[in-house]
Amino acid sequence: xxxxxxxxxxxxxxxxxxxxxxxxxxxxxxxxxxxxxxxxxxxxxxxxxxxxxxxxxxxxxxxxxxxxxxxxxxxxxxxxxxxxxxxxxxxxxxxxxxxxxxxxxxxxxxxxxxxxxxxxxxxxxxxxxxxxxxxxxxxxxxxxxxxxxxxxxxxxxxxxxxxxxxxxxxxxxxxxxxxxxxxxxxxxxxxxxxxxxxxxxxxxxxxxxxxxxxxxxxxxxxxxxxxxxxxxxxxxxxxxxxxxxxxxxxxxxxxxxxxxxxxxxxxxxxxxxxxxxxxxxxxxxxxxxxxxxxxxxxxxxxxxxxxxxxxxxxxxxxxxxxxxxxxxxxxxxxxxxxxxxxxxxxxxxxxxxxxxxxxxxxxxxxxxxxxxxxxxxxxxxxxxxxxxxxxxxxxxxxxxxxxxxxxxxxxxxxxxxxxxxxxxxxxxxxxxxxxxxxxxxxxxxxxxxxxxxxxxxxxxxxxxxxxxxxxxxxxxxxxxxxxxxxxxxxxxxxxxxxxxxxxxxxxxxxxxxxxxxxxxxxxxxxxxxxx
Amino acid sequence: xxxxxxxxxxxxxxxxxxxxxxxxxxxxxxxxxxxxxxxxxxxxxxxxxxxxxxxxxxxxxxxxxxxxxxxxxxxxxxxxxxxxxxxxxxxxxxxxxxxxxxxxxxxxxxxxxxxxxxxxxxxxxxxxxxxxxxxxxxxxxxxxxxxxxxxxxxxxxxxxxxxxxxxxxxxxxxxxxxxxxxxxxxxxxxxxxxxxxxxxxxxxxxxxxxxxxxxxxxxxxxxxxxxxxxxxxxxxxxxxxxxxxxxxxxxxxxxxxxxxxxxxxxxxxxxxxxxxxxxxxxxxxxxxxxxxxxxxxxxxxxxxxxxxxxxxxxxxxxxxxxxxxxxxxxxxxxxxxxxxxxxxxxxxxxxxxxxxxxxxxxxxxxxxxxxxxxxxxxxxxxxxxxxxxxxxxxxxxxxxxxxxxxxxxxxxxxxxxxxxxxxxxxxxxxxxxxxxxxxxxxxxxxxxxxxxxxxxxxxxxxxxxxxxxxxxxxxxxxxxxxxxxxxxxxxxxxxxxxxxxxxxxxxxxxxxxxxxxxxxxxxxxxxxxxxxxxxxxxxxxxxxxxxxxxxxxxxxxxxxxxxxxxxxxxxxxxxxxxxxxxxxxxxxxxxxxxxxxxx
Lengths: 531, 599
Description:
The structure holds two protein chains of two kinds. By secondary structure, chain A is α+β, with helices and mostly antiparallel strands. Chain A folds into three domains: 2-62, no CATH class; 87-250, no CATH class; 314-520, no CATH class. Chain A contains 19 helices and twelve strands. Chain A has helices at 2-18, 20-27, 39-43, 67-87, 89-92, 94-103, 117-120, 132-142, 167-170, 192-196, 241-244, 249-252, 274-278, 311-315, 347-357, 464-469, 499-506, 510-522, 525-530, and strands at residues 211-213, 234-236, 319-330, 368-370, 377-379, 381-392, 395-398, 404-411, 413-418, 424-429, 441-445, 495-496. In chain A, strand 9 (413-418) and strand 10 form a beta hairpin. Among the domains of chain B are: 1-34; 35-85, no CATH class; 267-361, no CATH class; 380-563, no CATH class. Chain B is 28% helix and 19% strand. In chain B, the strands form five sheets. In chain B, strands 11, 12, 13, 14, 15 and 18 form a six-stranded mixed sheet that branches. The termini of chain B are far apart. Classes of the chains: A alpha+beta, B alpha+beta. At the A-B interface, strand 3, strand 6, strand 9, strand 10 and helix 18 of A face strand 11, strand 12, strand 16, strand 17 and helix 23 of B.
């Protein structure tokens, strides 16, 4: 019987194929495309008998830009791009998967994750065991990887909608409806709204446009009449100077570049550098660079003693400081608790809460969320909260290349897990790594909040917080809140400033005094004195 | 040996307390003799046999019940006996007949009736003033319990603010709200056991004050190092929100506490009876009633209170306080004394009012950091307040379609208020000049974004009333921020969170908040002044103001010198304007002739 059906379907398919052009066009009149391919070249496959069928599209592929169709549908023309993309972090998400598994005590060490790990995460159906190591894949597949390019998030909330596959970047969606914004077309130049559908929620990208998530509690959904975007209400901070000059993400960042080897984390992904356009220490701007201000080697800040400092460490106008990430895996139907937290930067949470809270209590279901890669439902949804969040001057440390860089406290996890019988298995537990250390991490990052001028010297020098002593009003007073004390970065060679480096910044050494004075003079202190 | 030493050291105290105790006993015996017929006649105790004494100084055997609760104490019939009785004697409506009757606490009862904690005059007048419904924030005649419901601001006050004044009815609302009020009992009553008569105390613990002073300026929270959190309720506890809770679905987390809290001091260790219950005059604002200053203890002046001074009654009523009646006590103001700060062998001590422990008080008379010329206008708080609770943006929504409890009429009436916030911070208080001309920390107080809906739920009116207020945040630390933390800080100077830089001799700021994009006013909420000295917000007091443009420039100029001259004792600060002239005129000063050091 099964075979019989299959054969019938195949005949039907062939029938459709024969008259495909006629048939597609006659129904899909509204489809506008500038591409020269026929419909079936992308959407019909002879090998596609495993695709969900419906009566009028027996073997149609809705989205052939998903990786499983690349070989058949895309490879012939875009082989090079596909090969490059397969190595990239947008494809593998290796940094996220590997680091989280390591911090949660699932992997012994960093870099044990294979490039196809994201594909295996499709098979995650639930929690393995009630430990941080046992819930980490649920977290990755159920929450973090909603931003993976293969996750179809057209149904997310405004700001966060993206399609899956190549289309996730190359087909811009109308954020209000989830429908393609420019008709049935791929775009070569990617709009910032596309990037921001993932790079929001106090991640790099959002800061470029001055977005900073408001606190999630309903009282912070202000001013009156505000609407959420990216799944949360937003503050508006000063934008990156490049954004103000009209530059978009892709003006600096090109995805399909050649990788010498597969990057394991963001720092290994080849990327554009400030110096490429602006020049730097012993470096001239590339001749192809657009005209912009050039590295001023006469500036006090640009003397050799600052050579190991990343540009962003001084030129960032503000940085994300999101302290204490509280993740709560809830399998229960206790939605009342979350009714004042409808917008947490995750459309699935919002949709679930709105739906379940609209029902009478006795009809509410235990919480489910989808495996973002497979679309399958899993028991439990991840709610998110913080200790507190700040936009502030940076905290410094060393990145993987040993440069002084901005660090951020994004990974101070507290994990809670409540099952469908309301039993608490994990109670604000800090994950413990396999080596017994707390699974927290502060990451070096590049704030995209660049200003024309660097911040004042005192933003780092003499500044207790900048050197890694947490928020404290005086270096020798106690720390205001323990959570602001930095945790050691886990990536190789990356670290906090050591005691000697801290002292160098906190003390006014002769060298500092000389150059600080010089900086004042360069900026016209004498004129101010004469006023 | 230790005991002997202790006895020797405390001999005057011991003698004094012995004398005092004797006096008290004699007084009680004397009183019981005088009132013996009343005690016999108070028939209440024939039925209420098992009532416990409220306190050592309020023995039932002597006072009976009717002395406080009124009624007809001479009749044994319950119905008649209870006629005219009051359940809560300390309600200020009849306190003159009870706690405040002749022979008892006449002065204090009268003072409390006029005090700012009863009238909330400042709170009411300030709100009406800020909402542009009256011309002045100063009116000592206002009483919150009598504010007519005639306007938006008065409606807001009645429904949102009238939950704390001393004489509000108790038990009107669940939880902490219902525990507030009740007149003298608001502070002096201790309910340990619902089956027993509550007791009275003069040793108020912090939580007594905290039940009210945990909103707005949040001083009692800050003092204990509690910071109201941004609504997350984290860390989660047992699958629910944090158990570090405050009233109104709020939570807190810990930050560094006040140094006095660390020394085991409670609110009443500084805030004496006059601070709290008033000095008998009606005041327009809290700061007029509160007299104690940092200097009261740390640059203490001593005097001998005369025998009639109320401080003796305070000492007498607290079992752990005892000083000889010829002692010198720290003078707060002429004729107002701290009952627990005294001098001995040229050393100043404070006796903690809850446990009687003694703390040494360091005297700040020659601290060069505090006596710096040019810093004369600085209050202690401007440097020593490490953190200040700052609640930016108070988004008030009025919806006439819903009802809400009017806390004065105790009725559900038309119109509903709800409040939202923009964000909370505890770091880097902003500085400005307060109404006394002193430099003080400022914080939002309040920054109202008002939205009024009509009966269809459409916006009828929107308005902004942005106000900054000076207050003592009660986050005192011995350590202070570095000089540069003020002299070069946009936020502390009132210019808003951002970067204050110098370009071609001109000051510039980069503001971090994009207020226009956020549809929040024109300037960032932390900003109260522009570089040229234009205030961007209203001040909560007439004479208070942000720094002027000129003051900002003067302050920033010092930052340059601070690079090398970073000690208060440095000669250049003894006459800074002269030093400045030298800098400008003498090109051969070391500052002008920089030599690059060899690293």
